[in-house]
Recover the amino acids of this structure.
């Protein structure tokens, strides 16, 4: 069920400031993203990307420094985190790392990890009953993600790329309209990176909205048209990727001389 009076805006942040200790990580940030958009947020390490994701998912909250501040997701100020998961699927390396100990300790299988998304747990416990409908849906997700053959394998025995697919499966059990992915290709080998980007394209073509946070411009798949630059906790540029993904603009963003190579509808850095 969608929230009553749902806004066409997925994210509506106006003048949002988020501190971390005595430092401001997000500074008077304003950002609007419409439902159904595919958007990439690019920035160097330490720019505030991950903090922005945590602000969206309500893991952290801003300080109210201005009466002008707006801090809404899908038109609402206040969210129960379990309700928010019905609309946003979250896939972050922080999440995988936070789950990894229990996944290894209990030898959680891929099937169990995916189904445990219904219960916000890590794997399944004896008291958690899984209906036949949920089992069927989980099998559909595994087929879509092309990991049916891994269903009974312990997640701890998978490659990094396979683990990320399983984590996406866990996020998809609620059929969220939007997937938020934070640095999804970090630490993957070149082959796994290519396969993961192909999966992102498959998700986008299937009607899943993507909000991708990265510092790799090659992660900006062709389906993503809008790019946002973040630096020092502020949005410094926002527009079509054809305008922003240039050598000059990316060199300024990352503080290094970079050369952008365009191949069809894809972008990468040249040597």
């Amino acid at each position: 069920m969608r929230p009553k009076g749902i806004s066409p805006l997925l994210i509506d942040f106006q003048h949002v400031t988020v501190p971390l200790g005595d430092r401001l990580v997000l500074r008077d940030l304003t950002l609007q993203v419409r439902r159904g958009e595919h958007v990439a947020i690019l920035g160097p390490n330490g720019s505030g990307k991950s903090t922005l994701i945590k602000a969206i998912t309500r893991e952290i909250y801003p300080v109210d420094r201005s009466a002008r501040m707006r801090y809404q997701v899908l038109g609402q100020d206040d969210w129960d985190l379990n309700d928010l998961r019905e609309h946003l699927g979250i896939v972050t390396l922080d999440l995988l790392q936070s789950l990894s100990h229990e996944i290894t300790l209990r030898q959680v299988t891929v099937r169990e990890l995916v189904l445990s998304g219904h219960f916000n747990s890590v794997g399944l416990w004896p008291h958690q009953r899984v209906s036949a409908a949920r089992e069927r849906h989980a099998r559909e997700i595994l087929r879509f993600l092309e990991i049916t053959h891994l269903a009974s394998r312990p997640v701890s025995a998978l490659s990094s790329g396979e683990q990320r697919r399983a984590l996406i499966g866990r996020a998809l059990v609620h059929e969220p309209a939007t997937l938020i992915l934070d640095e999804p290709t970090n630490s993957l080998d070149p082959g796994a990176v290519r396969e993961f980007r192909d999966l992102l394209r498959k998700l986008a073509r299937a009607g899943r909205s993507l909000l991708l946070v990265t510092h790799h411009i090659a992660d900006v798949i062709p389906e993503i048209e809008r790019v946002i630059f973040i630096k020092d906790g502020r949005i410094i540029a926002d527009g079509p990727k054809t305008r922003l993904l240039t050598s000059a603009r990316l060199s300024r963003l990352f503080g290094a001389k970079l050369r952008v190579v365009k191949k069809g509808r894809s972008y990468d850095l040249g040597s």
